[in-house]
Amino acid sequence: MNNPLLQKFNTKHTTAPFSLIKNEHFKPAFKEAIKKAKAEINNITKNTNVPTFENTIEILEFSGKTLKRISSIFFNLNSAETNDDIQKIAQEVSPWLSDFANDIRLNQKLFKRVQLVYDIKDELNLTAEQDMLLNNQYKMFVRNGANLNDIDKETLRGIDKKLSKLSLQFGENVLAETNAFELHITEENRLKGLPDGAKEAAQLLAKQKEKHGWVFTLDYPSYIPFMTYIDDRNLREKLAKVFGARAFKNNKNDNQQIVLNIVKLRHKRANLLGYKTHAHFVLEERMAETPKKVRSFSNELLTKAKPAAEREFKQLSDFAKKDGIEQLQKWDGAYYSEKLKKELFDLDQEALKPYFKLENVIDGVFMVAHKLFDLQFKEIDTIDTYHKEVKTYEVTNTKGDFIAVFYADFFPRKGKRNGAWMTSYKGQWEINDENSRPHISIVCNFTKPTETKPSLLTFNEVTTLFHEFGHALHGMLANTTYPSLSGTNVYWDFVELPSQLLENWCYEKEALDLFARHYKTNEPIPMEMVQKIKDSSNFLEGIQTLRQLSFGLLDMSWHGGDSPEAITSVKDFETKAFTDTQLYPDVAENCMSTAFSHIFQGGYSSGYYSYKWAEVLDADAFEAFKETGIFNKETAKKYAENVLSQGGTEKPMVLYKRFRGKEPNSDALLKRAGLINKIA
Ligand SMILES: [Zn+2]
Description:
Helices cover 55% and strands 7% of the residues. It has helices at 23-46, 53-61, 65-80, 84-105, 108-119, 128-142, 150-179, 196-208, 220-229, 233-244, 256-272, 278-283, 291-321, 330-345, 349-352, 358-373, 459-476, 497-503, 509-512, 527-536, 541-560, 570-577, 597-600, 610-628, 633-642, 652-660, 667-672, 676-679; strands at residues 182-185, 214-217, 375-379, 391-397, 402-409, 421-426, 429-431, 434-436, 439-443.
């Protein structure tokens, strides 16, 4: 069968053949690739020679390549360009994949061979990377029930199947709820306060839907400007409540029971494997190691940030009182923050946007990568994509060596999920002295160009682009032997270091001067604006910190408690978890958990704290650049050699210390956030 997904395409320039792929190719390709991967595993277990690192660990590491490749294409499409057919296929193949994964994890013969190598590892003279690979493989079996009896193994397989379906359903419900709503406005006077750009975008959206007037949706590029600028408080309240009620309306897309089921099953699974809670299970393989440490880390930051947050909330409330607002509500937050920020800093986000034309920002981030890591990006149109909006680049170093393929997909579309993320279509590895380079992608939902204006990014979108590009650098500069230890394949609470670190350059004049130019006049962004960006970046930092901590603590409450069977109400449970971190009055008909995709759809369960954790790391790491100059080649080299290129080949703390010369501490973050002098 001529299935493009089953052709060989892992040579240097051969990228995913999107234009040839039809939906009907996926299922047969998955079936065939699973068969092939199974045969590869069989070859390992059939081997009658004494198990060695080479004939067992390495072969296992490189098995299932086709399957991994097909999966990455398919699931990336399911996030960036999905439709009913793809979602249906996902529902069908997800159980096949978890079955196959469990077949490996619970393969006793394979485990025995790995275990035999593991038992003599001290005699093998392994490199640090090999040692890490062996440890990971051994733990993969044990953490997936290799030591369980047959009955418990069956139970585990059942739980995993259910969990995989539930997570998928959770995500589909959130997407369906997001797409199901639109706010159609026909009288222009109701749009008072809204900047022209957002107005035009809403008009374009209406046009596309063959309607008059303006249409707003729950997609961020539509929702966020609406909540930030619309003067009409009732309209803001209406949209905020619809947004906050996603998958919490007792309709067919409701996620309440799904949340409870996921939490209970995760707990049961952890218990079965001998862990106290799901959080204990997850954190065993994190830099933070235990729920206790996460809680003490979070509570320490909470203690330090809360007084500042309360002061800021009062300041914001007093400011809104001038408008006759007696009690500041959630739908007032963004609106009055923006107004107060403007009053204090006279920094109008809209006035900044002309300096951040998307194309200029892309050039800027490429220049930063060039100055730091000697990378060059050349846009090419010979690479196949899944949508005409996707841009493609060939990445080389200054010597001309091929480093990576880079895809960038910037604008929202129906069928693309919210937010921004980095992903890959092919990893990096080394076989027989040949370094096989990665195919990396970033996907965003940035402000679209309109009929009269190019895509002008908000400052937040600029930092988002730098963030995702930081992840992309982690992928592109990967330089390891084994694919499972390459690039962003690191502990979860370490993975946000490269992304958050790169955001720091957005606040530096030296970096902004490279690309922040007015799209009409080509004038560089004025110095005082840069200074204002800097000053205002700490604005309401206490409130922001509390918000992030509240999500992390909610996550830990769902996954770190020892009796999830006792939870009956998602809303009540959530309200309780939020007790110490909430500043705004609760909205009874809203719920965060039912749309908390990070922890119920994606892989962030027991890991949301890692955003703040990584902030501590990134602030500390950026100090190294500030000490030597933000484009200091030596510092950048040290960072690339010890962190970016190393992936997960060693424990993150070891890698970090090699770069920084010391362990990180939270001083740099508290200083940067302007919280440290407010503590005393
Ligand atoms: Zn990130």
